[in-house]
Amino acid sequence: MRLPSMIRAGAAATLLLLVAASPSQAATFQLINIDGAGEGFNDTTPVPPVGGNPGTTLGQQRLNVFQMAGVIWGSYLSSNVTIRVEARFDALTPCDASMGVLGSAGAITTAFNFPGAPQTNTIYSIALANRLAGSDQAPGVNDITARFNSSVDDATCLGASDWYYGYDHNEGTDIDLLAVVLHELGHGLGFQTFTTLSTGAFLNNLPDAYARNLLDTSNGLRWDQMSNSQRRASATRTDQLVWIGPNTLDFTSQFLGPAAFVRVDAPPAIAGVKAHGTAEFGAPTPNPDLQAQVILVNDGTGTTSDACETIVNSAQVAGKIALIDRGICPFVEKAARAQAAGAVAVIIGNNVAGAPPGMSGSDPSITIPVVSITLDDTNAIKGQLGVGVTATIGGDPTNIAGADALGRPKLYAPNPLEPGSSVSHFDTSAEPNLLMEPFINHNLTNNVDLTLYVFADIGWLGTVTAVEPSPTPIAARPQTSPNPFTTATAMRFQLARGGETTVEVFDARGALVKRLPAAWRSSGPQSVEWDGTDAAGRRSPAGVYFWRVRSEGESLTGRMVRVE
């Protein structure tokens, strides 16, 4: 996973459905620590506990975060074969003040045509193969290898941002290690293709379970139907590479919101919806739609429209959409200067031919929407600024952000190819952000979102069904805060109408831990605290728990993790 120079803070996805069947045996993860003495997981630098992480040394906090990531993934996935992950911290490059590699991971080996394989002549990551076979298919070999960037804690790498070692995703301007470890383990568990993207060649000339679910909409072919040269071309077809696994398709609209659009409204000569790119920072899609006049910025120096210096025509920019040329300074700096000048939104115009650029970066203080457009559209707008250009940035409820017109989620396929990022990630146009995008985002939680259903498509879960929460009497917004928690947590939900309400807590096996006193509750937001004890008042052990609220025969379920 790479870190953009800016990380966007946005609204987290709300879980609107539940996996009907819990894993029969939670997957167990074992860390194989391959760091040397005094480094990485073995760093003895004293640190205070943070965000529910009780470790008092840097190395112990890193170990604790890794263990928590294993607990979270284990609560979603089942396997009777321990998943062995060899991991270490190294100084990874590139990493400067604005961008750096956070980590990398993948399956160490693979298997095919093993007992229990759902598809013949198909490559599976070894952890998944072990799960499907019910036995270790590569004895003596670890399953996943992972590396994390120790330089993030240095001032020269990503500036003032350091690793955040808490469990509560309250990282502020730091980098949430728990989210990164969850992401990287996702790759090792099977969210990756083993195709050599530079040539399009399959490993052992066999498709992998991931590649069998990839479709190129430009030619209507799946990757397992293509030649090497066709796959090589498909890996760089932005917006045209989609996931077609049936479980994921069933749930895409539950996790992703309406697609954003950029439209020029006037003058008529250039009016219409424009192709656009999104930013990993700034505000989410405006709701209601934002319409304003477009004004070209002027910073008075060199290329005056690139906003690489303080904008001098702020009186004209204030209250308008700032048009800024792509240039030598980071996207986030351009947006920050436009916001300081009073702009209500930013359009970055590409300075080279091709698709509108995706824009990386991190600055939670940027609260206006930022989009990009093509060079041709930029020049067309500039040509009409004399008569006045009006544009709208908004959401299209008829289309899904990060999916094509048929609701199939897009995969990251930039042109040129980005080794290590292309294809084996969701596209950055997804909104809200997804765990398996190529850039880390500040709005990630323990919810592994649409990723879980990709895992169902490749074999981890089988067919997934859903319990659609009824709009009455319980509104579909189960939340738990803090989560993970140590001593107590609040289970939050909404009632569409008042009624007798019961809240129950269950362990990961489905055994009842505690039934809280029934009470009549009025309509509206509710918060019920669980102190982490069972019916006898004993402290419940660390682990994954589920809670269920029932009212008038309807029920809704949430999930939480208790840590020591």
What is the topology?
Layout: E1 2-3, E2 29-33, H1 58-76, E3 83-90, E4 100-101, E5 103-107, E6 110-111, E7 124-125, H2 126-133, E8 144-149, E9 163-164, E10 175-176, H3 177-189, E11 214-216, E12 221-222, H4 228-234, E13 241-243, H5 246-255, E14 258-266, E15 272-274, E16 276-278, E17 290-296, H6 314-317, E18 321-325, H7 331-340, E19 345-349, E20 370-373, H8 375-384, E21 390-400, H9 451-458, E22 474-481, E23 489-495, E24 499-507, E25 512-515, E26 519-521, E27 524-530, E28 543-551, E29 554-562
Parallel strand pairs: 2-3, 3-8, 9-10, 17-18, 18-19, 19-20
Antiparallel strand pairs: 1-4, 5-8, 6-7, 11-12, 11-13, 14-15, 14-21, 16-20, 17-21, 22-23, 23-27, 24-25, 24-26, 24-28, 28-29
Helix pairs in contact: 1-3, 5-9
Task: Please sum up the structure shown.
This protein is α+β, with helices and mostly antiparallel strands. It is 16% helix and 26% strand.
Task: Please provide a written account of the structure.
The chain is α+β, with helices and mostly antiparallel strands and 564 residues long. The protein has 3 domains: 2-200 and 435-458, no CATH class; 258-395, Glucose Oxidase, domain 1; 474-562, Immunoglobulin-like (Sandwich). Helix content is 16%, strand content 26%. The chain is built from 9 helices and 29 strands. It has helices spanning 58-76, 126-133, 177-189, 228-234, 246-255, 314-317, 331-340, 375-384, 451-458; strands at 2-3, 29-33, 83-90, 100-101, 103-107, 110-111, 124-125, 144-149, 163-164, 175-176, 214-216, 221-222, 241-243, 258-266, 272-274, 276-278, 290-296, 321-325, 345-349, 370-373, 390-400, 474-481, 489-495, 499-507, 512-515, 519-521, 524-530, 543-551, 554-562. The strands form 8 sheets. The chain has an 8-stranded mixed beta sheet, sandwiched between helices. A hairpin with a 4-residue loop joins strand 24 (499-507) and strand 25. The chain is globular, with a radius of gyration of 24 Å. The two termini are 29 Å apart.
